[in-house]
Amino acid sequence: MAEWNRDTPWRQGHLLGSDAIAALGLGHTTDPENTLVIVASHDCDLAQAPDGEPRIEVVVGRLVTNKDGNCTHAKNARKLHVEFVGVSACWAEFEATSKVVIDKLALNDFGPRTDAHLTPENHAIFQMWLASRYRRAAFPDEFERRLTSKEYKLHEKIAKAVKPHGELIAGVFFDVDGGVEVTRDGPGDTYTLDITILHAADPDFDAAEKAAIEAAKAIQTAFEDKLFKPTKTWQHIELGSCDAVSESVLTYQQFKQLKRWRLDHISLAADPQQPVLAE
């Protein structure tokens, strides 16, 4: 077996071929015939000598025919739906719990697939998804309880509004009380929430903008119906704004101030009640 060196053809985001998948026993647990395995380790780590970094992290996924809009653009930290282009263009599903490690030298006998690859944009999305498992915005516990309560289920309303638009919407971002954590007590002591629906700029700006505006209107209506109209005054959470914004005009300063709302947030409606994971 040849020695591993910095000239390895393997890069983050490359797919393993069927021969490597079979040899390494990496079949998908429930859908082995549609297995896809992607390299998760960073290029710099791949280049390191095996005596220092002997293993490579991969994610075992599968082909999907119906993409889920709430799993595109790294909107869900647990599951990613992402498109590959090329001769064998396809959509793939990867789950965060399906990461495994393999011996680096074991890949020396195989080369990456050349018939399907990630575009630079989708490679960046894949990287964001990998990082999102460990870099998730934290919201006040009481705010999350109000948003995910059985009575209002506003988190589900948000997901429902965004899902039909798929990759046209890049993410949902929250600004809660201007970023200052305040202890709230009682329905009349409301959180102030501003929502940004971030939409794609390419390849069809107009379609993406229309989708984001539609989602924003649906979310605005849901909040008003649940938290404003019954008493003619805001209760629990006051929705200050819900705006559609293009990713091409959102500034870095604005981005730093916002917190992404992951559409896979643990619901406190679980029985028994489960703690909310920090986002």
Textual characterization of the structure:
This protein is α+β, with helices and mostly antiparallel strands and 279 residues long. Helices cover 25% and strands 22% of the residues. Strands 1, 2, 3, 4 and 5 form a five-stranded antiparallel beta sheet that branches. A four-stranded mixed beta sheet has the order 8-7-6-9. Strand 7, helix 6 (205-227) and strand 8 (237-246) form a beta-alpha-beta unit. Helix 5 packs antiparallel against helix 6. The radius of gyration is 21 Å and the shape is elongated. It starts with 17 loop residues before the first helix and ends in a 19-residue tail after the last strand. The relative contact order is 0.14.
